[in-house]
Amino acid sequence: MALQFPVARSALSTSAPRFSAVISVRQTQHLRSYSRTTQRRNCDRWSSSSSRVQCAQRVSWPRWVVSGNLATRRTFSSTSVARHGHLGTPKPGEERKVIFIDKEGERHTFEVADGDNLLDIAQANDLEMEGACGGSCACSTCHVIVEDQDYYDRMEEPSDDENDMLDLAFALTETSRLGCQVKMSKELDGLVVKLPPATRNLQASDFADKKK
């Protein structure tokens, strides 16, 4: 059975024409899964992680869907985990403890040095964290969830680039961060982070290509 509905004017750029689209139920579900990719364009700059999550939960149609071929589909695919940076050697008495909770709920505790980021720590210890973009803040596959709000508040504010990639993250929460952007320090000693149940291998370049 096919569904027919108009695309909201607010979801279109000022130069895009109004039109109605007829797509299948499967296509509808598929397109909605990508609707969060344009939330940063449709929402005001947020000042807190809470407003970011609320903004990302609103529904709008991605601009590339409006201007492109509605029949175009993207599929999820798995890629081999690429190894990135190396871990430093902590100085005696300056070891920083970090705990990862994996998808099965098992806790993994490591002692690391100041400046080590969560992506490198996870990969060096064979935890399931992909980091498809090489730790360049251009994907969301190193998404982690900070368990304690107090530790989250101790971190530096996420950059605009990180916020853009977090919009693509699966199971986004108010304390979500990208592992490649969180570096261990004295203030984060004892940090506990949880790996999400799944990740989306969508990169910034995917959407840059759509604009050409």
TrEMBL record:
<dbReference type="InterPro" id="IPR036010">
    <property type="entry name" value="2Fe-2S_ferredoxin-like_sf"/>
</dbReference>
<keyword id="KW-0479">Metal-binding</keyword>
<dbReference type="GO" id="GO:0140647">
    <property type="term" value="P:P450-containing electron transport chain"/>
</dbReference>
<dbReference type="InterPro" id="IPR001041">
    <property type="entry name" value="2Fe-2S_ferredoxin-type"/>
</dbReference>
<dbReference type="InterPro" id="IPR018298">
    <property type="entry name" value="Adrenodoxin_Fe-S_BS"/>
</dbReference>
<dbReference type="InterPro" id="IPR012675">
    <property type="entry name" value="Beta-grasp_dom_sf"/>
</dbReference>
<keyword id="KW-0408">Iron</keyword>
<dbReference type="GO" id="GO:0005739">
    <property type="term" value="C:mitochondrion"/>
</dbReference>
<dbReference type="InterPro" id="IPR001055">
    <property type="entry name" value="Adrenodoxin-like"/>
</dbReference>
<dbReference type="GO" id="GO:0009055">
    <property type="term" value="F:electron transfer activity"/>
</dbReference>
<comment type="similarity">
    <text>Belongs to the adrenodoxin/putidaredoxin family.</text>
</comment>
<keyword id="KW-0411">Iron-sulfur</keyword>
<dbReference type="GO" id="GO:0046872">
    <property type="term" value="F:metal ion binding"/>
</dbReference>
<dbReference type="GO" id="GO:0051537">
    <property type="term" value="F:2 iron, 2 sulfur cluster binding"/>
</dbReference>
<protein>
    <submittedName>
        <fullName>2Fe-2S ferredoxin-type domain-containing protein</fullName>
    </submittedName>
</protein>
<feature type="domain" description="2Fe-2S ferredoxin-type">
    <location>
        <begin position="96"/>
        <end position="199"/>
    </location>
</feature>
<keyword id="KW-0001">2Fe-2S</keyword>
<dbReference type="Pfam" id="PF00111">
    <property type="entry name" value="Fer2"/>
</dbReference>
